[in-house]
Amino acid sequence: MADLGNPKKTIEILNKYKFIFQKKFGQNFLIDTHVLDKIIKAAEISKEDFVLEIGPGIGTLTQYLCEHAREVLAVEIDRMLIPILEDTLSSYDNVTVLNEDILKVDLNQIIQLKNGGKAIKVVANLPYYITTPIIMGLLEQQIPLKNITVMVQKEVADRMQASPGSKDYGALSLAVQYYAKPYIAANVPPNCFMPRPNVGSAVIKLTLHDKPPVEVKDETLLFSLIRASFNQRRKTLVNGLTNSADLAFTKEQIIEALNQIALPENIRGEKLTLEQFAQLANALSN
Ligand code: SAM
Questions:
Q1: Is 101 touching ligand 1 by the criterion CB < 6 Å?
Q2: Is the CB of 77 under 6 A from ligand 1?
Q3: Is residue 116 part of a domain?
Protein backbone atom coordinates (compact mmCIF):
# COMPACT_ATOMS: atom_id res chain seq x y z
CA MET A 1 0.00 0.00 0.00
CA ALA A 2 1.22 3.53 -0.79
CA ASP A 3 1.76 4.96 2.70
CA LEU A 4 4.64 7.44 2.44
CA GLY A 5 2.89 10.59 1.23
CA ASN A 6 2.69 12.32 4.61
CA PRO A 7 5.23 14.03 6.89
CA LYS A 8 4.84 11.54 9.76
CA LYS A 9 5.69 8.42 7.76
CA THR A 10 8.47 10.21 5.87
CA ILE A 11 10.12 11.30 9.14
CA GLU A 12 9.74 7.76 10.51
CA ILE A 13 11.64 6.31 7.52
CA LEU A 14 14.30 9.04 7.61
CA ASN A 15 14.90 8.37 11.32
CA LYS A 16 14.89 4.60 10.95
CA TYR A 17 17.75 4.80 8.43
CA LYS A 18 19.39 7.92 9.93
CA PHE A 19 19.17 9.44 6.46
CA ILE A 20 21.04 12.71 5.88
CA PHE A 21 19.77 14.94 3.05
CA GLN A 22 22.35 15.65 0.35
CA LYS A 23 21.96 19.19 -0.94
CA LYS A 24 24.16 18.40 -3.95
CA PHE A 25 21.56 15.86 -5.15
CA GLY A 26 18.62 18.29 -4.97
CA GLN A 27 16.73 16.20 -2.41
CA ASN A 28 13.29 17.61 -1.56
CA PHE A 29 10.90 14.75 -0.85
CA LEU A 30 7.16 15.02 -1.49
CA ILE A 31 4.93 14.83 1.59
CA ASP A 32 1.51 15.67 0.13
CA THR A 33 -0.91 13.02 -1.15
CA HIS A 34 -2.95 15.53 -3.18
CA VAL A 35 0.11 16.48 -5.19
CA LEU A 36 1.00 12.80 -5.71
CA ASP A 37 -2.53 12.08 -6.98
CA LYS A 38 -2.31 15.08 -9.34
CA ILE A 39 0.97 13.83 -10.84
CA ILE A 40 -0.47 10.35 -11.52
CA LYS A 41 -3.61 11.86 -13.02
CA ALA A 42 -1.73 14.35 -15.22
CA ALA A 43 0.57 11.59 -16.54
CA GLU A 44 -2.49 9.41 -17.28
CA ILE A 45 -0.75 6.35 -15.88
CA SER A 46 -2.52 3.05 -16.59
CA LYS A 47 -1.71 -0.66 -16.29
CA GLU A 48 -0.46 -0.56 -19.89
CA ASP A 49 2.39 1.79 -19.05
CA PHE A 50 6.10 1.27 -18.54
CA VAL A 51 7.24 4.24 -16.45
CA LEU A 52 10.71 5.62 -15.85
CA GLU A 53 11.03 7.52 -12.59
CA ILE A 54 14.07 9.77 -12.19
CA GLY A 55 15.21 10.13 -8.57
CA PRO A 56 12.78 8.03 -6.46
CA GLY A 57 14.18 9.34 -3.14
CA ILE A 58 12.64 7.18 -0.39
CA GLY A 59 10.06 5.83 -2.87
CA THR A 60 7.03 8.05 -2.19
CA LEU A 61 6.02 8.74 -5.81
CA THR A 62 7.39 5.31 -6.77
CA GLN A 63 4.74 3.60 -4.62
CA TYR A 64 2.00 5.53 -6.44
CA LEU A 65 3.54 4.61 -9.80
CA CYS A 66 3.74 0.91 -8.84
CA GLU A 67 0.05 0.96 -7.92
CA HIS A 68 -1.00 2.46 -11.27
CA ALA A 69 1.53 1.32 -13.90
CA ARG A 70 2.42 -2.06 -15.37
CA GLU A 71 6.12 -1.66 -14.69
CA VAL A 72 8.37 0.96 -13.10
CA LEU A 73 12.08 1.58 -13.49
CA ALA A 74 13.45 3.99 -10.88
CA VAL A 75 16.93 5.47 -11.35
CA GLU A 76 18.48 6.90 -8.15
CA ILE A 77 22.02 8.32 -7.87
CA ASP A 78 22.32 8.33 -4.04
CA ARG A 79 23.43 4.89 -2.84
CA MET A 80 22.30 5.69 0.71
CA LEU A 81 18.72 5.55 -0.57
CA ILE A 82 18.99 2.05 -2.06
CA PRO A 83 18.42 0.05 1.18
CA ILE A 84 15.55 2.41 2.04
CA LEU A 85 13.93 1.78 -1.35
CA GLU A 86 14.32 -1.98 -0.87
CA ASP A 87 12.28 -1.58 2.29
CA THR A 88 9.59 0.88 1.14
CA LEU A 89 9.03 -0.90 -2.20
CA SER A 90 9.23 -4.47 -0.82
CA SER A 91 5.54 -5.19 -1.43
CA TYR A 92 5.73 -4.41 -5.17
CA ASP A 93 6.92 -6.89 -7.78
CA ASN A 94 6.68 -4.50 -10.74
CA VAL A 95 9.59 -2.18 -9.87
CA THR A 96 13.32 -2.20 -10.56
CA VAL A 97 15.67 0.27 -8.85
CA LEU A 98 18.88 1.20 -10.62
CA ASN A 99 21.62 2.96 -8.63
CA GLU A 100 22.91 5.24 -11.43
CA ASP A 101 23.25 8.82 -12.57
CA ILE A 102 20.32 9.36 -14.98
CA LEU A 103 22.55 11.43 -17.26
CA LYS A 104 24.79 8.38 -17.81
CA VAL A 105 22.13 5.74 -18.41
CA ASP A 106 21.59 4.42 -21.96
CA LEU A 107 17.80 4.76 -22.00
CA ASN A 108 17.35 3.60 -25.59
CA GLN A 109 19.01 0.31 -24.69
CA ILE A 110 16.92 -0.12 -21.53
CA ILE A 111 13.66 0.60 -23.38
CA GLN A 112 14.65 -1.89 -26.06
CA LEU A 113 15.40 -4.56 -23.46
CA LYS A 114 12.56 -3.93 -21.03
CA ASN A 115 9.75 -2.62 -23.23
CA GLY A 116 10.52 -4.01 -26.70
CA GLY A 117 11.45 -0.49 -27.89
CA LYS A 118 7.88 0.79 -27.35
CA ALA A 119 7.25 4.31 -26.02
CA ILE A 120 7.37 4.82 -22.26
CA LYS A 121 6.26 7.56 -19.87
CA VAL A 122 8.62 9.55 -17.66
CA VAL A 123 7.44 10.77 -14.26
CA ALA A 124 9.58 12.53 -11.67
CA ASN A 125 9.96 15.08 -8.95
CA LEU A 126 13.18 16.25 -10.56
CA PRO A 127 16.39 17.29 -8.81
CA TYR A 128 16.31 21.01 -9.74
CA TYR A 129 20.07 21.39 -10.28
CA ILE A 130 19.87 19.31 -13.49
CA THR A 131 16.30 19.87 -14.73
CA THR A 132 17.27 21.28 -18.13
CA PRO A 133 19.96 18.69 -19.01
CA ILE A 134 17.58 15.87 -18.05
CA ILE A 135 14.63 17.19 -20.07
CA MET A 136 16.65 18.28 -23.09
CA GLY A 137 18.56 14.97 -22.99
CA LEU A 138 15.28 13.01 -23.09
CA LEU A 139 13.94 15.14 -25.96
CA GLU A 140 17.07 15.45 -28.10
CA GLN A 141 18.10 11.79 -27.91
CA GLN A 142 14.73 10.96 -29.47
CA ILE A 143 13.99 8.36 -26.82
CA PRO A 144 10.62 6.66 -27.49
CA LEU A 145 8.36 8.62 -25.13
CA LYS A 146 4.63 9.23 -24.79
CA ASN A 147 4.88 11.98 -22.25
CA ILE A 148 7.07 13.48 -19.54
CA THR A 149 5.31 14.64 -16.36
CA VAL A 150 7.68 16.30 -13.95
CA MET A 151 7.90 18.57 -10.94
CA VAL A 152 10.22 21.48 -11.74
CA GLN A 153 10.84 24.99 -10.42
CA LYS A 154 7.80 27.14 -11.21
CA GLU A 155 10.03 29.57 -13.10
CA VAL A 156 11.35 26.79 -15.35
CA ALA A 157 7.82 25.51 -16.03
CA ASP A 158 6.79 29.05 -17.05
CA ARG A 159 9.78 29.28 -19.41
CA MET A 160 8.92 25.97 -21.07
CA GLN A 161 5.32 27.03 -21.67
CA ALA A 162 6.00 30.67 -22.70
CA SER A 163 4.98 32.22 -26.04
CA PRO A 164 6.66 35.06 -27.99
CA GLY A 165 6.22 38.44 -26.31
CA SER A 166 6.28 37.02 -22.78
CA LYS A 167 9.27 37.81 -20.54
CA ASP A 168 9.76 34.06 -19.95
CA TYR A 169 10.08 33.27 -23.67
CA GLY A 170 13.50 32.02 -24.69
CA ALA A 171 15.65 29.20 -26.05
CA LEU A 172 14.16 26.68 -23.59
CA SER A 173 10.58 27.51 -24.67
CA LEU A 174 11.45 26.97 -28.32
CA ALA A 175 13.51 23.82 -27.75
CA VAL A 176 10.80 22.18 -25.63
CA GLN A 177 7.97 23.26 -27.97
CA TYR A 178 9.80 21.86 -31.00
CA TYR A 179 9.51 18.38 -29.47
CA ALA A 180 6.44 18.56 -27.24
CA LYS A 181 3.30 20.37 -26.14
CA PRO A 182 3.75 21.74 -22.60
CA TYR A 183 0.92 22.02 -20.09
CA ILE A 184 1.26 23.18 -16.46
CA ALA A 185 -0.90 20.72 -14.50
CA ALA A 186 -0.40 22.14 -10.98
CA ASN A 187 1.41 24.79 -8.99
CA VAL A 188 2.99 23.38 -5.84
CA PRO A 189 4.07 25.44 -2.81
CA PRO A 190 7.26 24.73 -0.80
CA ASN A 191 5.36 23.24 2.16
CA CYS A 192 4.55 20.11 0.10
CA PHE A 193 8.20 19.04 0.37
CA MET A 194 10.68 18.00 3.03
CA PRO A 195 12.95 19.89 3.34
CA ARG A 196 11.19 22.91 1.85
CA PRO A 197 12.79 24.28 -1.33
CA ASN A 198 13.44 28.05 -1.55
CA VAL A 199 11.34 28.35 -4.70
CA GLY A 200 7.83 27.58 -5.86
CA SER A 201 7.34 24.44 -7.96
CA ALA A 202 5.02 23.25 -10.71
CA VAL A 203 4.05 19.97 -12.33
CA ILE A 204 4.50 20.25 -16.08
CA LYS A 205 3.37 17.67 -18.61
CA LEU A 206 5.13 17.50 -21.97
CA THR A 207 3.21 15.49 -24.55
CA LEU A 208 5.55 14.48 -27.35
CA HIS A 209 4.65 15.49 -30.92
CA ASP A 210 4.41 12.66 -33.47
CA LYS A 211 6.48 14.93 -35.69
CA PRO A 212 7.87 18.44 -35.09
CA PRO A 213 5.31 21.21 -35.74
CA VAL A 214 7.67 22.93 -38.21
CA GLU A 215 9.74 21.59 -41.08
CA VAL A 216 13.43 22.47 -41.18
CA LYS A 217 16.13 21.32 -43.56
CA ASP A 218 18.85 21.70 -40.94
CA GLU A 219 17.80 21.11 -37.31
CA THR A 220 21.28 21.93 -35.96
CA LEU A 221 21.17 25.33 -37.67
CA LEU A 222 17.68 26.01 -36.23
CA PHE A 223 18.94 25.45 -32.68
CA SER A 224 22.15 27.43 -33.27
CA LEU A 225 20.04 30.38 -34.46
CA ILE A 226 17.74 30.12 -31.44
CA ARG A 227 20.66 29.96 -28.99
CA ALA A 228 22.51 32.86 -30.64
CA SER A 229 19.38 35.08 -30.67
CA PHE A 230 18.73 34.65 -26.96
CA ASN A 231 22.38 34.80 -25.88
CA GLN A 232 22.22 38.47 -26.73
CA ARG A 233 18.67 39.31 -25.77
CA ARG A 234 19.15 43.08 -25.80
CA LYS A 235 20.50 43.11 -29.36
CA THR A 236 18.58 42.97 -32.63
CA LEU A 237 18.44 39.55 -34.25
CA VAL A 238 20.83 40.68 -37.00
CA ASN A 239 23.49 41.77 -34.47
CA GLY A 240 22.97 38.74 -32.23
CA LEU A 241 23.48 36.34 -35.13
CA THR A 242 26.39 38.27 -36.66
CA ASN A 243 28.25 38.33 -33.32
CA SER A 244 27.76 34.61 -32.61
CA ALA A 245 30.90 32.47 -32.62
CA ASP A 246 28.80 29.44 -33.67
CA LEU A 247 27.51 30.98 -36.89
CA ALA A 248 29.38 32.16 -39.97
CA PHE A 249 26.80 34.33 -41.74
CA THR A 250 27.51 37.89 -42.83
CA LYS A 251 25.23 40.75 -41.84
CA GLU A 252 24.10 41.02 -45.49
CA GLN A 253 23.15 37.33 -45.66
CA ILE A 254 21.06 37.60 -42.52
CA ILE A 255 19.30 40.76 -43.72
CA GLU A 256 18.57 39.09 -47.05
CA ALA A 257 17.10 36.05 -45.30
CA LEU A 258 14.92 38.30 -43.09
CA ASN A 259 13.70 40.13 -46.21
CA GLN A 260 12.84 36.82 -47.85
CA ILE A 261 10.57 35.87 -44.96
CA ALA A 262 9.12 39.40 -44.67
CA LEU A 263 10.52 40.29 -41.24
CA PRO A 264 11.89 43.77 -40.44
CA GLU A 265 15.67 44.15 -40.23
CA ASN A 266 15.54 45.58 -36.70
CA ILE A 267 13.46 42.74 -35.19
CA ARG A 268 14.58 41.15 -31.92
CA GLY A 269 14.87 37.37 -31.54
CA GLU A 270 12.33 37.30 -28.73
CA LYS A 271 9.59 38.34 -31.18
CA LEU A 272 10.01 35.32 -33.50
CA THR A 273 7.75 32.28 -33.31
CA LEU A 274 9.11 28.76 -33.75
CA GLU A 275 7.64 28.83 -37.27
CA GLN A 276 9.57 32.04 -38.08
CA PHE A 277 12.83 30.64 -36.68
CA ALA A 278 12.28 27.60 -38.92
CA GLN A 279 11.66 29.84 -41.96
CA LEU A 280 14.81 31.81 -41.15
CA ALA A 281 16.87 28.59 -40.84
CA ASN A 282 15.51 27.39 -44.18
CA ALA A 283 16.22 30.74 -45.87
CA LEU A 284 19.80 30.75 -44.52
CA SER A 285 20.51 27.15 -45.45
CA ASN A 286 19.60 27.86 -49.10
N1 SAM B 1 10.91 11.24 -5.94
C2 SAM B 1 11.22 11.62 -4.58
C3 SAM B 1 10.06 12.40 -4.00
O4 SAM B 1 9.29 12.95 -4.78
O5 SAM B 1 9.91 12.46 -2.78
C6 SAM B 1 12.52 12.42 -4.49
C7 SAM B 1 12.61 13.67 -5.36
S8 SAM B 1 14.03 14.65 -5.04
C9 SAM B 1 13.47 16.23 -5.60
C10 SAM B 1 15.17 14.25 -6.35
C11 SAM B 1 15.79 12.86 -6.29
O12 SAM B 1 16.67 12.71 -7.41
C13 SAM B 1 16.63 12.59 -5.07
O14 SAM B 1 16.31 11.33 -4.54
C15 SAM B 1 18.08 12.59 -5.59
O16 SAM B 1 18.97 11.80 -4.83
C17 SAM B 1 17.88 12.09 -7.00
N18 SAM B 1 18.94 12.47 -7.97
C19 SAM B 1 19.68 13.60 -7.97
N20 SAM B 1 20.51 13.62 -9.03
C21 SAM B 1 20.29 12.47 -9.72
C22 SAM B 1 20.86 11.91 -10.90
N23 SAM B 1 21.82 12.55 -11.58
N24 SAM B 1 20.42 10.69 -11.32
C25 SAM B 1 19.44 10.04 -10.62
N26 SAM B 1 18.87 10.53 -9.50
C27 SAM B 1 19.28 11.73 -9.05
A1: yes
A2: yes
A3: yes
What's 60's domain CATH number?
3.40.50.150
CATH assignment at residue 279: 1.10.8.100
Residue 74 near residue 105 (C-beta atoms within 8 A): no
**Atom of ligand 1 lying closest to residue 57 CA:** 14
Q: Are residues 61 and 193 in the same domain?
A: yes
Out of 9, 24, 29, 61, give the residue to mutate to test ligand 1, the one with the largest number of ligand atoms within 8 Å of its CB.
29
The torsion region of residue 49 among left (phi > 0), alpha (psi -120 to 50) and beta comes to beta
pTM: 0.96
How many domains does one find in the chain?
Answer: 2
**Residue among 49, 40, 36 nearest 144 (CA):** 49
Ordered per-residue pLDDT tens for the chain, 286 residues = 788 999 999 999 999 999 999 999 999 999 999 999 999 999 999 999 999 999 999 999 999 999 999 999 999 999 999 999 999 999 999 999 999 999 999 999 999 999 999 999 999 999 999 999 999 999 999 899 999 999 999 999 999 999 998 999 999 999 999 999 999 999 999 999 999 999 999 999 999 999 999 999 999 999 999 999 998 878 899 999 999 999 999 999 999 999 999 999 999 999 999 999 999 999 999 8
Domain that holds residue 27: 7-208
Establish if 27 belongs to a structural domain.
yes
Environment class of 17 (CB within 10 Å of its CB; exposed 0-12, middle 13-18, buried 19+): middle
